[in-house]
Specification:
The chain is α/β, with parallel strands linked by helices. It is elongated and about 110 Å long. The chain has 31 helices and 40 strands. β32 and β33 form a beta hairpin. It folds into four domains: 361 residues, Ribokinase (UDP-N-acetylmuramoyl-L-alanine:D-glutamate ligase), CATH 3.40.1190.20; 176 residues, Alpha-D-Glucose-1,6-Bisphosphate, Chain A, domain 3, CATH 3.40.120; 232 residues, Alpha-D-Glucose-1,6-Bisphosphate, subunit A, domain 3 (Alpha-D-Glucose-1,6-Bisphosphate, Chain A, domain 3, 3-Layer(aba) Sandwich); 163 residues, Alpha-D-phosphohexomutase, C-terminal domain (TATA-Binding Protein, 2-Layer Sandwich), CATH 3.30.310.50. The chain has a ten-stranded mixed beta sheet, with helices on both faces. The protein has a seven-stranded mixed beta sheet with strand order 14-18-17-15-16-21-20, with helices on both faces. It has a seven-stranded antiparallel beta sheet with strand order 32-33-36-37-38-31-39. Helix content is 36%, strand content 20%. The C terminus is likely disordered.
């Protein structure tokens, strides 16, 4: 028979809204009386089950011999060790009365035992509960008590009895009902024989019955203001919600706690804490029994799916929250209950047409619910994604349907039905809501499995690794990388393909095209998934796996680097080679703790700002000299030999030691030069090297000397992916603090930091003198020469001004008179003659795809060059980046090689500003950020680089 819609609606009325308006205790206060010497687990399970279900307070009333054990199981429980064998129930009654007056429901029986003194205390407590009009649940040895004298419960319709098969047979006999009668009819008969007490008979199917025909209530109808005639009902409900295939001790105690929780909510509803008081109090016992049965059975199934034969009761406790959401949905804003599991019309039967529905035996079967797909009509209005996905202000993503439109467009552009997807991000503001949105849309679009980082946290490199390791079809990453976070800052969504790398341009263009024509998005209104606990949950055909964010990534790094060598070096030089990592409150904090502190056993003082924050601690999570000043200041002040930082999503890095800042261009070149000291490359070899076009040519020199193939690609890590997949690229980098290799398909901040530690440890194996960052720079420049390099960032400038700058430089490039023109520095008189000028276009050597207008380049006759580029990673306005580079050969000598970057590039920067008319078009006298190398080879440490800090 179809499920009556009114049952679900009435149960939902019992559920307190999560609107922040209820005080402690207004979502239920439960007491459990039980806990003799040998039975401490049962009362714990019942009491903690009620709390897991959602009550505010849970008390256990027990013997002193059991109290210590019960309390030790959980500090969340309030334990009253007042059932002392040496005192009488009469003398304890005043204290019991006072205690129960503060509770809404009393659960009698779990761990009660059959000792005469415990049974006597239970009878006294039941008597007090009835006097106070409390709801009561009776289970286990409480049912033994009832069986000895059925009059103690007869007619008290605020009670629910929860017998198992053996207990129900005995109770039937004691109530004068033939135990051979069919179960459903017998349950109804026992309820009627006991004066309308509700029965929940546990079994393969839970049978719930309430029969008040012809009986008199002892709970006084005045309490609920319902006449005896109106209160008459005879209902039998069969709950066959799938449960686990393995039974174990304690599951019945969880059920009694769940029934108690719902009855406690019923009492709060009755007292007006929430709700409209339209629900008859006489319905509450049977509704509580149905709701608790459904949730408990679902929790049992979920636990069994994870643990199999080894399932124990504590596994079920962990699943109550998810099971509750699976059955009923979840409370949303304003305390309104959203029906997140939509029932189709064929699930319902209208009972209003029945002549006398309260006098008819109605048998209802609560079956599994289907999850329909709901389309939401929308209008297309999405901005074009940049080089690393869609990045905008949070308030833009919070606009109605904006986020849903973009996510649906991913599924419209890419066939992902039956796929496995990875979801995670840097934990910035608006991430938790978006994870739930993705879950609903992904399920509606036929995704089979979602792998989600615990708490939604998954660094971009770790996500790339997870996609590759678990052979997922792709991943949706929630990050705006190095951009600020918070309600008034930035948010981002990007899609990574099955190789673990960012979607190539042909895919991002497809997604963008879909955003321009989207008419609707599809959702399945699943309950919110708890992403704070590692484990796997099944919602119909969708599996959701919550994974530890660090474990897989750490295992990967241990296959790449020589951890024993690094650890040995750090241990040996713990006094003269200190390490400091700054997480900038981004996603890499937990990774740094797991690697540096827990694995390499560095002191906890070796990491700072490593607690991920939705707004990155109010800072800007970009690892450069300006925004990572918290690292720079400590390194200089405390003479730290090796400092490092990473950005919001963990794909960028900065290497900075006392007296030496390593530019990203130099960093990737040095890693490439020392690659054979790293086990991963020593074993597999180095296939090729690459850099982004604006990055200095330092790595080119390494490639030429080693006879390796090398590539120059547009800005954007996705351009390295094809080369890696084709086996032609091993190590690559970008001047924007991105460094990585073919171990994954994203740049990787922690990887770069570990590469430097591996190199330093290897360099010191046969050295009597400590070799650090500065010494490695010295050696590299002496071997290859030095590319003086600096980047000027002008952030959030007017878009029209930025476009005018681009148009102006394009006009120069197109002019026949520009090549050969000479410019003179005003400060030094140095002249620069234009050798060539062009827009950088790139043809992918693997798939032959073409990327045009990737930056404007001017080269000079002395080999220097200047690049201007509009960045695609900002969220508001435009960001213009200007890059200047001048190469000095090794033969120039130490004096020239050790020149301060600002000094070495000053003349070229003046000419670059003159050529571009940048100040005029952007209206800025100074850049927002300057990135430049800091090199010191003098006994007296100079701090000239601080002049580069731009406030």
């Amino acid at each position: 028979m179809p499920v009556p819609k009114q049952i679900f609606d009435q149960i939902r009325q019992l559920i307190p809204p999560l609107n922040g308006k209820l005080h402690k205790g207004q979502s239920g206060r439960v007491g459990v009386i039980g806990g003799a010497l040998d039975y401490t687990g049962a009362p714990f399970f019942a009491a903690i089950s009620a709390m897991r279900f959602g009550v505010d307070l849970s008390h256990v009333i027990c013997s002193p011999t059991a109290a210590g054990a019960i309390k030790s199981y959980s500090p969340d429980l309030i334990v009253h060790p007042i059932l002392r064998e040496e005192i009488s129930p009469k003398s304890l009654r005043p204290e019991m009365s006072s205690l129960l007056s503060r509770l809404h429901v009393l659960i009698i029986g779990p761990g009660l035992g059959r000792e005469p003194y415990m049974q006597a205390f239970a009878r006294m407590a039941l008597d007090v509960a009835k006097e106070q009009g409390m709801f009561v649940v009776i289970d286990a040895d409480g049912l033994w008590m009832v069986g000895q004298q059925v009059d103690v419960i007869k007619g008290y319709r605020r009670a629910v009895l929860t017998p198992n098969v053996v207990e129900f047979k005995r109770l039937s006999e004691q109530a004068g009902v033939d135990p051979n009668t069919k179960l459903q009819e017998r349950a109804s008969s026992v309820s009627r024989a006991l004066g309308g007490v509700s029965i929940l008979q546990k079994g393969a199917q839970d049978i719930i019955a309430t029969n008040t025909e012809g009986g008199k209530s002892r709970d006084a109808h005045a309490l609920s203001k319902i006449s005896a005639t109106e209160a008459e009902q005879n209902e039998i409900i069969v709950v066959d919600t799938p449960g686990g295939l393995k039974r174990c001790g304690g599951q019945g105690d969880i059920l009694s706690g769940a029934v108690g929780a719902m009855l406690a909510w019923g009492k709060c509803y009755e007292e007006g804490a929430f709700g409209d008081k339209t629900l008859p109090v006489s319905r509450m016992p049977i509704l509580a029994a149905i709701g608790a049965s459904m949730v408990t059975r679902a929790a049992s199934r979920r636990a069994f799916e994870k643990e199999g034969r080894g399932v124990v009761t504590q596994d079920m406790l962990k699943e109550i929250g998810g099971a509750f959401s699976e059955i009923f949905g979840a409370e949303q804003y304003g305390g309104k209950f959203v029906h997140t599991v939509h029932l189709r019309l064929e699930h319902f039967e209208d009972l209003s047409s029945r002549a006398h529905p309260d006098h008819v035996i109605a048998r209802y079967k609560v079956s599994s619910l289907r999850l329909p797909i709901s389309p939401h009509p929308v209008s297309p209005r999405i901005d074009k994604p940049g080089t690393s996905g869609l990045r905008k202000r949070v308030k833009i993503f919070q606009q109605e349907h904006y986020t849903e439109n973009f996510v649906q467009s991913i599924f419209d552009a890419i066939s992902l039905s039956g796929s496995t997807l990875v979801v995670g991000g840097d934990g910035r503001y608006f991430s938790p809501e978006t994870v739930q949105t993705i879950l609903k849309i992904a399920s509606a679009n036929g995704v089979s499995k979602l792998i989600i980082g615990k708490d939604g946290i998954l660094s971009t490199p770790a996500a790339s690794n997870v996609i590759r390791k678990y052979k997922a079809n792709g991943g949706i990453l929630l990050t705006a990388s190095h951009n600020p976070g918070g309600p008034n800052a930035d948010f981002g969504i990007k899609y990574n393909v099955e190789n673990g790398g960012p979607a190539p341009e042909n895919v991002t263009e497809k997604i963008y095209e879909k955003t321009k024509t989207i008419k609707s998005y599809k959702v399945i209104e699943l309950p919110p998934i708890d992403i704070s606990k590692v484990g796997e949950t099944t919602y119909g055909p969708l599996k959701v796996s919550i994974i530890d964010s660090v474990t897989d990534y750490l295992e990967l790094l241990e296959t790449i680097f020589d951890f024993p060598l690094i650890k040995s070096f750090l241990t040996e030089h713990k006094s003269d080679f200190r390490v400091l990592f700054d997480g900038l409150h981004g996603v890499t904090g937990p990774y740094a703790r797991g690697i540096l502190v827990e694995t390499l056993e560095l002191p906890s003082s070796s990491i700072q700002n490593c607690e991920p924050s939705p707004d990155f601690g109010g800072g800007h999570p970009d690892p450069n000299l300006t925004y990572a000043h918290s690292l720079v200041e400590v390194v200089e002040r405390e003479n730290i030999a090796f400092g490092a930082a990473s950005d919001g999503d963990g794909d960028r890095n900065m290497i900075y030691g006392k007296g030496a800042f390593v530019t990203p261009s130099d960093s990737v070149a040095i890693i490439a030069d020392w690659a054979d000291s790293i086990p991963y490359f020593k074993k597999g070899g180095v296939k090729g090297l690459a850099r982004s076009m604006p990055t200095s040519a330092a790595i080119d020199l390494v490639a030429k000397k080693k006879g390796l193939e090398y590539f120059e690609v547009p800005t954007g890590w996705k351009f390295f992916g094809n080369l890696m997949d084709a086996g032609r690229l091993s190590i690559c980098g970008e001047e924007s603090f991105g460094t990585g290799s073919d171990h994954i398909r994203e740049k990787d901040g922690i990887w770069a930091i570990m590469a430097w530690l591996n190199i330093i440890a290897a360099a010191n194996k046969s050295s009597s003198k400590l070799i650090g960052i500065r010494e490695l720079l010295n050696a590299h420049y002496a071997k290859y020469g030095r590319s003086f390099f600096s980047r000027y960032d002008y952030e959030e400038v007017p878009s029209d001004g930025a476009q005018k700058l681009v148009d102006h430089v394009n006009a120069l490039i197109a002019s026949s008179s520009f090549s050969g023109k000479t410019y003179t520095s005003a400060s030094s008189g140095t002249t620069f003659t234009v050798a060539s000028a062009y827009n950088f276009n790139y043809t992918d050597p693997i798939d032959k795809s073409v990327s045009k207008n990737q930056g404007q380049v001017v080269t000079f006759s002395d080999g220097s060059r200047v690049v201007w580029r509009l960045s695609g990673t900002g969220s508001q306005g435009a960001t213009v980046r200007m890059y200047v580079e001048r190469y000095v050969a090794a033969e120039a000598g130490e004096k020239e090689l050790s020149r301060d970057t600002a000094e070495g590039l000053q003349s070229l920067i003046e000419v670059a500003l003159e050529i571009s008319n940048l100040k005029q078009f952007l209206g800025r006298e100074k850049p927002t950020v300057i990135t430049a190398s800091r090199y010191v080879n003098l006994p007296l440490i100079r701090y000239s680089f601080f002049s580069l800090f731009v406030q």
